[in-house]
Amino acid sequence: MKRSITLIFFACCLLISPFASRAQEVTVTGKVTEKANGQPLPGVTVTVQGTSKATSTDAAGRYAITAAPGAKLEFRQLGMKPQIITVSGTTLDVSLTGDETSLNEIVVIGYGTQKKSVVTGAISSVKASDLENMPVTRIEQSLQGRTAGLTITGASGQPGSGATLRIRGTTTIGNSDALFIVDGVQVDGGIDYLSQSDIESIEVLKDAASASIYGARGGNGVVLVTTKKGKDTDGKIRVNYNGFVGTQAPDHKLKLLNAAQYATLYNEAAVAGSKAANPATAIRFPDPAALGEGTDWQSEVFNNSALWHNQELSFQGGSARSTYFSSLGYFDQEGIVASKNSRYKRFTARFNSQHKITDAITFGNNIGYTRINSIGVATNDEYGSPLVRAINMDPITPAVERDPAKFNAPPYSNFPVVRNSEGFPYGISPYAQSEILNPLGALAVAQGNNWSDKIVANLFLEVEPLKGLKLRSSGGVDLAFWGDQSFRPVFYLSPTTELKLNAYTRNMNRGLFWTQENTATYSGTIGDHHFQVLAGMSAQKNKGENLGGLKEGIPVNNLKDASLQFPVARLDNNFYGGEYLSTLSSLFGRVTYDFKERYLFTGVIRRDGSSRFGPNNKYGYFPSVSLGWVASKEAFFPENKVISLLKFRGSYGVTGNDRIGDFRYLSTVSGGRNYSVGTGLLPVLVNGVSPNALSNPDLKWEETTSTNIGLDAVLFNTFTFTADVFTKKTTDMLLDVRVPLYVGNNGPIGNIATLTNKGIEFEMGYSKTVGEVSFKANANATFIKNRIDFLGEDKEFLTGARITPQQLELTRTAVGHAIGSFYGYRSEGLFQNTADVANYKNAAGNPIQPDAKPGDIRFADLNGDGKINDADREFIGDPTPDFSYGLTLSAAWKGFDFLIFGQGVAGNQIFNGLRRFDLPSSNYTTEALGRWTGEGSTNSFPRLTTDDANQNFGRVSKMFIENGDYFRIKTVQLGYTIPKLMSKKAGLDKVRIYAMANNLLTLTRYNGYDPEIGGGSFGIDRGYYPQARTFFIGLNLGF
Amino acid sequence: MTFNKIKYAIAIVVIMQAGTSCKKDFLEVAPRGTALEGNFYKTDGEVYQGLIATYDVMQWGNSGGYTMKMPLLSAASDDCYAGGSSPSDQPNWVAFDNFKMDSRVGPQVGLWSKNFTGVYRANILLAKMELNTSLTPAFKTRVAAEAKFLRAYFYFDLVRFFGRVPLITKMLETSELYTQKQVDPALVYTQIEKDLREAFSALPASVAATEKGRISQGAAKALLGKVLLYSNENAKMTEAASLLKDVNSNYGYQLLPNFGDIFDPKNKFSAESILEIPHSNNAAWGDWGFINGGEGNVAPQFIGADSYSGPLYSNGWGFCPVTESLVDFMKNDPRFAFTIIDGKDLKSQGATYTARYQNTDYFIKKYAPLAAVRATSGTAELNWPINEIEIRLADTYLMEAEALVRAGGDQGRAQTLLDLVRARVGLTSVPATIDNIYNERRLELATEGHRFFDLVRTKKAAAALTGFAVGKSEHLPIPQDEIDLTKGGITQNPGYN
């Protein structure tokens, strides 16, 4: 009986079900694309409103769902404006538009992605559209001014040169470089190998809550770079071409003295400094006016039309199973200084692809290869850079000596002087001293180049054995080969700079950095509770070696013919090499949870073990927690038209900095502790060896603990606002440990010092479309204060930079001050007359500056001891900006698009060290024409004298410190896209032409070439290679 | 899930396991191409280099200020003044000369640092050798003995200069770096004696000419004899006498017939020399910032007459002018001419020089900068190839005589030893009383760096030295940084607070 009822029931079902569906519903199929580019949109959720029926689009954007005619289909995807369409047939194609103000975009976080609306950490994101067509040599430069919390300062304007990138301030007195992860692979040698059009997005993990998933490497912040992936194009190949060509020139030249002015001031200084009975005998140039303009050295080294071009070609496409993205790029930039010696060429190739082996198994790869060939000059160096030579060279000496009476006489006739292509010798100055010599001659003998071949590849396999569970295994390598060569022919440039035996040096390096990672991620939903659990393990090894050699006296006279293969005497041979190795082994986990996307929680923990840490601290634990509350999703939050989103975030976490060098915990031994053994006047010297310092088995990472409180808001649906307040405290920074002398050896390196960064940052966005005009604005601002808290029991400061051959102390890293603050004398105007000098006296009635004369600088006697010495110095400036900001405005109307982007800093100072004041023969800027020449003439520029007994120019003082604030119109771009109807006729999907200007205008009070001075001499202008002003035209094609 | 999926899932898990398998030793990597404390001292050759580095410290004269013992101790004694260009030339020497040292002024930093560096290098050598079974046994025995000798040598200077010092005979653990405490000098003496007793049996009776500069058994016994004498315990005098007798009788040492030959730089490691510290100019050194990196003796440069121009000598810096007291004391002694340069004689030979601070026109002759040996490469001032003789036979004769008298031992032998020293320079016998022996020490060993400690150990310093405060001036102050770094764990010597 029971059985027959079941049968009947089953039969009924069979009969009724198809019948019922045939009667009421139809199967609707279609394709969902993105309106902006026509690309298919996979993963769009399609639901029948009022039912539980739902599906999602496949990789080609296609879907199929059954619905009754008249039912409403809802299409939803993160980052897109949802659409609701009434079913009226069996096919329904939909195109979705980007939801630009929403926080629904996807953000890449370490080992995964997250919806921006549920992010609880402080993460800034830059998308491909913000980067496209921006002319930068290196990707990191494109982040400048784009996001809050990031300070980027170009290391120089030389093509290919890096930038000083600091995420939320300088985190350590050691290595503050951020961690770069490209498609999951750590890349340490700089990300200049990436071609711009290959980038999909860049995320900057700023607080510990987001960076702690990178544990001991996350302390300086993390930059995640994701390259482009292919999209399902139904098998069609999409080709894109981007190219631009530009011409670069220096923003401005300095106003230097011409030959006549130089001679006048030279005479004046010589007479003033003369000790002779008749000082007039010190006059060197009896008729300065006759010397006229003389040589403009700046024009000799600058190139006003340096070329820059960039070509990028990409192919992408695929099917539901496989997608690919391939690209080729070529980049060539000449420098504006000494273009022949300053150039950067780069070839890039990329192949990214993903394949679905089965529905549950995905395999993919991201492979990039780059070849770079470059040549460079010294960029911020008071000794040998072309600019410092151009600035300081006397304008009397000709660039090229064409006067036979001169070039047939010494020194031209009796030394191997350097000649130009016409055979005339470069002028040799009888006045200039030391390293200051004819820059053209010096450039001609500086022959050499650098090259690198780099492959960064990542392969992964992802399996989804159960719904919601993803197992992923990935392996990545960064394999690089790089080297350089230089040749110096026999030359005579000046009495102090000559080479009697030519020298050829060649270095080869190989580095391999591999990473292997396995992760398991489970995402689930229980009612309104959404959670994701991640667990993973990672191992990586970084190893490399170098080999180099030098041969002197090889039988050639130029780089092209130079080879290490030439046999030379053994003494003129030198070779050397080195190697490095480090390993990292890690476990990590993360839990993210939200309730109705209203209450948010993320917890992270990572354990890192590193070969760099001492045996007593082999493993470090780096936890973080972060919480979020989306107030606007609360039931009690009033319905309103003003605030569409209001979210509060808070986080706390610990990260580390493992950039502490390899094997520093070990004690190395060195020789040279010699002793004479044997008899007689010449016993045998035996090499003695002993440890250099104690080992430190406790040595570990530097640790950064940070707290972040943030707010995200969307107002009027058009205006986004984000604010964050943070504190980062870095402890355990490495310093030499001082041990008692009874220990008998130097102390080890230890985890000692402490510093704090505090800051506030804002990001704002606005977008509005009125009729056919769409308008967008983005702005960001960051305030940061950096302060040293502790440098060890025995230290109040560390000396940082020094300047000139006298090695004058210029910066100090001192407790209570920012890293690398300027330290020097306080100049208080000039003594106007002898009474001024005499009246500046101490308690004993003696002059405080006994060597001073009218026109000399009055220095403040800060400690009141009645004399001026080292103890009268104070902090006179800080090279790190307190405030940095960026602003982007863009607009589009019909086919036209316009963009203007500016960026600036404030609150920093620059040390202007352009003039070699230790050399009396150095040229001056025209500022020196306003020097002190008599009572009341000026109170700022001191008198000129060669003896400088008062050390006006021989002391680091406030006189050399200048305001470093600037605002720069970084990029202005105007583009025009030809209407699709027209381009279609030519078989093209997209044709856009554009014109662009880079560094169009810089507003600053700084007197040097460029106020943006990054790199090793941060904020110190030793003859900084300025950034160029460039004008470009470009073309984008797509078909 | 299909069968295929399961297969792939298993594959993934296997890959994941592969990742973990190398976990532990994955982090245990060692640097290559770098010699480390941990992997050095493995072979005979490496251990020998470690030994040489320990010997090296003996010849240091500049480890935180100039500290050449011979001229410095002469300046501290009544043989010489400090001198130099002015009192501010070497304030540390002037302060030692007139006993106005404090925790920051005086030669303490250099001497403390030098000798503890020596102790450290000896300690690490001993510690590393102890665990090493692959060394040639005979080599290991000898090097261990030398290391112990050197440790004793450095501690003997430390205990004499500073009294209470930390006694460190092993490698310090990280946790122990700041926690060392000073110990009673008697404990230091006990350790020195122990080291020397363990050393001398394993040292060679004689050292080949090609190995001169390394320690012999005679030197170790002589030093132990000297140490026992300095202990000032009468109970130890008999052993001191017998050790010194052994040195004086059984090792072939001989008094040179001509007193003047002893300090002729050509006579390195002469028959009279027992403990000699070599110096040479073959490092051709020129680094003023790291004088210890060279092998030269800076002392001759210090004591030479300033801006000297004339025959025989080279110019010096005018330190350690000889006191009128010593001139007076020696004026009728035949050794005067070999001990003191009389400025009047120089001038009569047509030489000129500049009088400097505390000039007496008398200069030390025993280590004078002879033009004939002046270095021709490197910086000559730093490369004087003039050895320091720390113990010589006349000294051990007098020490044995002293020990015999103080122990009430063989007075006849004491007399013979004293007579031998005097007879060499043509002087007749005087009774071997303790005072006569002390007088003879001053005459025979003047300006060789013995006088100051002789005065201190015989408690005659206060009478002989202006400014000497009993209970204080016997020792140097402890370097202030040492007290600060240990947060007071190391305490200042009495009288210097």
TrEMBL record, chain A:
Signal peptide range: 1-22
Predominant localisation class: membrane
Family under the similarity heading: Belongs to the TonB-dependent receptor family.
Key words of the record: Cell outer membrane, Membrane, Signal, Transmembrane, Transmembrane beta strand, Transport
Compartment list: Cell outer membrane
SUPFAM superfamilies xref list: Carboxypeptidase regulatory domain-like, Porins
GO CC terms: cell outer membrane
Organism: Pedobacter steynii
Entry-linked InterPro entries: Beta-barrel_TonB_sf (IPR036942), CarboxyPept-like_regulatory (IPR008969), Plug_dom (IPR012910), Plug_dom_sf (IPR037066), TonB-dep_OMP_SusC/RagA (IPR023996), TonB-dep_OMP_SusC/RagA_CS (IPR023997), TonB-dep_rcpt-like (IPR039426)
Classification lineage: Bacteria, Pseudomonadati, Bacteroidota, Sphingobacteriia, Sphingobacteriales
Domain annotation TonB-dependent receptor plug: ranges: 117-222
Record's keyword annotation contains Transport: yes
Protein name listed in UniProt: TonB-linked outer membrane protein, SusC/RagA family
Domain of life: Bacteria
Membrane topology per record: Multi-pass membrane protein
Annotated Gene3D superfamilies: Carboxypeptidase-like, regulatory domain, TonB-dependent receptor, beta-barrel domain, TonB-dependent receptor, plug domain
TrEMBL record, chain B:
Localization of this protein: Cell outer membrane
PROSITE patterns: PROKAR_LIPOPROTEIN (PS51257)
Domain annotation SusD-like N-terminal: ranges: 86-229
A cellular component term, taken from the record's GO annotations: cell outer membrane
Swiss-Prot/TrEMBL keywords: Cell outer membrane, Membrane, Signal
Pfam families membership: SusD-like_3 (PF14322), SusD_RagB (PF07980)
SUPFAM superfamilies, per the entry: TPR-like (SSF48452)
Domain RagB/SusD stretches: 350-496
tRNA processing among keywords: no
Family label: Belongs to the SusD family.
Protein name per the record: Starch-binding associating with outer membrane
Species for this entry: Pedobacter steynii
Native organism taxonomy: Bacteria, Pseudomonadati, Bacteroidota, Sphingobacteriia, Sphingobacteriales
